[in-house]
Amino acid sequence: MLSEHQRLDFLYRLTNALQQADSSIPIVLQTTLHSSARVLNAQDGCVVTFHQDDRPGEIFALRAGTRTDNREAWREFVQRGLIGYVQFAQRIIIARDITTDPRWQTSSLPDLPQTGSAVGIPLSKGGQMYGVMLFMHKEIDAFDDTTVHLLEAVSNLVSALVGNALVFNISPRDETRFQWLFEGAVVPIIVTDLDGYIVDANRKAAEFLDYRREQLLRLPITAIHRMGTGPIGNNRFNSLKSGDEVEFRTAAWRSDGTDIPVLVRAQRVFLNDHDVIAWVEQDITTQLELDQLRQDLTAMVYHDLRGPLHTVYGSLTSLGRFLSNHNQPIVLDLLQVGLRSTRQLSRMIESLLDIQRLEAGKAILDPKPTSMHNLLASAAQLIQPLATEGNQRLTFELNDELPFVEVDADMILRVVTNLMENALKYSPPGGFIRLGARLMDDSVQVSVVDSGPGIPTHMQRQIFDKFSRVKYTDVPKGIGLGLAFCRLAVEAHGGQIWVESEPGKGSSFVFTLPVTKTSEPVMVA
Ligand code: ADP
């Protein structure tokens, strides 16, 4: 029996405690459950919330004695016990002796108490019932009228705080809203379990993939689209399981064997008491067509710029020859400026065209067994005049036994000249550059060493990306396309490229090319 004073004191303290809960539903319900159990001397208890269709939702259980969590037992009990009666009758029900009370049938649920008394209280807001709170005491007849008054007050307090959220927002509405969004969505959505087996798919998904919805159920998601090869697929699954949002492009296979390019966005969500993965599949056919069109157009523009530029270059060279004896040096100087800029523009356009081709995966046009020795000698020949012009010394360190490699010779020649031009460009007048090559186990390794400013460690990877440059003072500026081209070209040949450098101590650009079994070593005199 509680005195009026105990009742008011308890309600006062509960109100204060609930105010700290900041309207968090789990905290409000747990706090209420524990505080009420303490004041009622109840050993067991739970709060069950209900969905709009009366199915049980969340269950909060008291941690009684050594049992840490008996939620599963309570869930069973909702179907056939006192909770169901309270839900049906929508009023407080007291079971004075649970051993004889027909509403307390726990013989098959040994985790729940078998003797004593119990009380069930409905939780409702605005006439809508959203849950039941239940307590049990190990003695018979432990709950009386004062208990009923107290629990009514508790029920009102809880409903004032979280009733609206539970009735209008959380379980029922969320699900209907989800169902509506899911079914009515204009994009295909597939829901799988955490192992990737389809448990649901919306109308649009069935339509898009040309399946009947039932046919999709239980198929693995990998029957619909690739997850990526090998470890990438597994990594994606692992990321999804750990709660990350995952996005990737792939092709979705339709039932008739055709495929459609898609952008897949997937995330783990909690739905109807289950952890699942929702996959949104966006058809990107039009987007890819537009991308292709844009690429073709730019390629065409770059390509068409080459013609007139060659003409300008040719005219300037002829004019230079024609005026070579001109007695006004300023004229020749101006011509040199024009020629340098034209060469630079031409290299830029070539790089842009190459980058575009390589990025599109088209890459190697003309792979042929090529003598690395001859290729490097040609590069040196092309670069020598520039070195002489800048009063820079060009030296060689070429291994005698360089193999033939299966490459697009023109492309690799451009890689070497690009690196050598950079070495000259960034080295001071009077500096040196050294071209080296040696045969490693199953690759040939080429290096271009210079006496330039060196490259800070944090930029050593970045400079191989498009438009990335180191900001030096007193050093010529570039636009940052040459090394991007070198990386794409070397990687397209199955090799690697990197730089070894210390600021102030020059740089060594190194790249490798795999030597295929058919490539034969040649002796060089
Ligand atoms: P660009 O030379 O036209 O800027 P690159 O892609 O060839 O384009 O080079 C990117 C950047 O890397 C350059 O802007 C420069 O900052 C740095 N870099 C390249 N080669 C060297 C080098 N040999 N020594 C020092 N810095 C270099």
Account of the protein in words:
- The chain is α+β, with helices and mostly antiparallel strands and 525 residues long.
- 44% of the residues lie in helices and 23% in strands.
- The chain has helices at 4-20, 25-40, 71-80, 82-89, 145-169, 171-184, 203-209, 213-216, 230-241, 285-322, 329-359, 372-389, 409-426, 482-492; strands at residues 44-50, 56-61, 93-95, 117-125, 128-137, 189-192, 198-201, 246-253, 259-271, 274-283, 367-371, 393-398, 404-408, 432-439, 443-450, 497-501, 507-514.
- The strands form 4 sheets. Strands 2-1-5-4-3 form a 5-stranded antiparallel beta sheet, with helices on both faces.
- Helix 1 runs parallel beside helix 5 (145-169), helix 3 packs across helix 4 (82-89) and helix 13 runs antiparallel to helix 14 (482-492).
- It is elongated.
- Adenosine-5'-diphosphate binds next to helix 13 and helix 14.
